[in-house]
């Protein structure tokens, strides 16, 4: 990823192109429309997991969201997203080099977490992808508030697979419509977009004593 974003950073410096928009512009519109439809307050804290060039955060800022954070484990991606942020004049977007699989303590209490292609990237890691996926779910539970929303767009996993991946701590709220294709008489989607809600924290034994 670092080498890929190094190249994209160079292209940005040369011709001002922000680079690949994963899953196209419609994937950003889909996410923003959902937030708007559900009247998610504009001051909600939003974390973009594996932000890449940070363009989604810029679009969220243009839609009025003002508490935006993007992390990426690739320093070149964060450098690129900083340049994009600067070009767009969105200095209030927070950007940080962080490995989501080992999140720092300050990464917590988010109202909304968004993943567009990052779990896919992690799932393709040839080194212990299963363990990394489990860690991903643990990290998500530690950074997202109970009852917070998690919006994921994936081309690697079907709805059913994502439901089983996140089934324990998260509830599905909605499947967002994505383009369909027909093959051999069956209809499918090449991209899955789901909205989950983190389940409420279980009451502790101390709460019961109150
Ligand atoms: C397919 S790209 C998607 C980028 C961006 N979300 C978008 O939609 O344009 C996957 C991103 O995940 C990042 N990534 C992969 N593993 C990560 C990890 N463990 N922690 C943080 N970022 C990670 C990569 O550096 C890359 O920017």
Outline the secondary-structure elements:
Blueprint lengths: L1 H14 L8 H14 L7 E5 L5 H8 L4 E6 L2 H14 L5 E4 L12 E7 L1 H6 L5 H15 E11 L4 H8 L3 E7 L3 E4 L2 E4 L2 E7 L6 H5 L1
Parallel strand pairs: 1-2, 1-4, 2-3, 4-5
Antiparallel strand pairs: 5-9, 6-9, 7-8
Helix pairs in contact: 1-4
This protein binds S-adenosylmethionine (SAM).
How would you describe the overall organization of this protein?
With 210 residues, the protein is an alpha/beta fold. It is built from eight helices and nine strands. The protein has helices spanning 2-15, 24-37, 55-62, 75-88, 118-123, 129-143, 159-166, 205-209; strands at 45-49, 67-72, 94-97, 110-116, 144-154, 170-176, 180-183, 186-189, 192-198. It has a seven-stranded mixed sheet with strand order 3-2-1-4-5-9-6, sandwiched between helices. The mean pLDDT is 93. Bound molecules: S-adenosylmethionine. The site of S-adenosylmethionine has 20 residues, from strand 2 and helix 5.
